[in-house]
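Lay summary. Proteins are chains of building blocks that fold into shapes, and those shapes determine what they do. In this project we predict the shape from the chain. Here is one chain we studied, written as its sequence of building blocks.
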Amino acid sequence: MPLAVYVLGLSVFALGTSEFMLSGLLPPIADDMNVSIPRAGLLISAFAVGMVVGAPLLAVATLRLPRKTTLIALISLFGLGQIAGALAPSYEILFASRVVSALACAGFWAVGAAVAITMVPLTSRTRAMAVMIGGLSIANVLGVPAGAFLGEHLGWRSAFWAVGLASAVALAGVLTLIPRIPLPAEKPRLRRELSIYRDRQVWLSIVITALTAGGVFCVFSYLAPLLTDVAGLDSGWVPSVLALFGIGALAGTTAGGRVADAHLFGVLLSGTTACTVLLAALAVLASSPMAAVALAFLLGFAAFFTAPALNARMFNVAGAAPTLAGATTTAAFNLGNTGGPWLGGAVIDAGLGFASTAWAGAAMTVLAIGLVALSLRLHGRSRVEISSRSGVRNTPQVAAESA
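And here is the predicted shape, written in a compact code that computers can read:
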């Protein structure tokens, strides 16, 4: 695995910390900004909306620009967004800073994923994505709990300053360790890149990714108040539980990255099913502190177990347009990260309680399971048709295992 891939993974640590850390900071932000917790939760959706819009938009806008220069510009803009958030005097300005940071984060993800994919052989794509997603997992292990700890002891603004510092370190790494990536001899053509959206498997992958991410974020976004108000834990426990979620996420990413190259659909089906079961269990057992803590760890593992496979599947079905494939995956994840917190907030506002967010999340992942099964069936059918035309006998089962 090229060193540059690991540098990208380390850069994603700063991005992921900013994206996820608000799950441990919602109560102090809500108090300081004089808004409700569900409204503070919209800051998570704001970041996700910026990612959804920014990923394809910036992927197209930077299609013919040097890759390293683009990465430098985007990580710099992201760092400035963190400073603006730390200095924000009002909820509205904080909201705007989250959108700007998300646009930069989305562009970095899209370009960085395309760079990582082009530097490794086809059979190592899932592992390359696992390294980048590993940056998110480490953000959950270290960055998010550290943000919650800083928010508890030094105020929520200190967490934004810390991410700004991490962004500066990431910028230094990109400047010094990412090699110059030459543009293709044939200039990318927007029309050819956009042609991937004619494929129904691309759209299935988008919806599956959005539902899977949304199901987890529906409850993860409100995990801090669930732990304190429902499970009865002291607020000092929140950073530790978030760290457990992150440890599970790191372990899940590692395991999924190793298995998914050979059993992509198996990983998707088993991981999404496990998320559904764990979310339902959390809804039932949320009032038990021990159960809530254990399920947070297991949910982190199951959620991130599928992440490398979801990324690799998009690159497999949209390989003719790697930059837009990376952007589309980023947008799909953040469609879920937008819809999940919104649905969770709606459930809470309806008076159903914080634990009910887990039921809502489970409903989303059940839909994802059905669509994974449909995608598998269509994939197997297309492989059989191709094999029949070439005179080679094949079956859907064999086709699925080789996906």
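What the prediction tells us: Confidence is low (pLDDT under 50) at residues 392-403.
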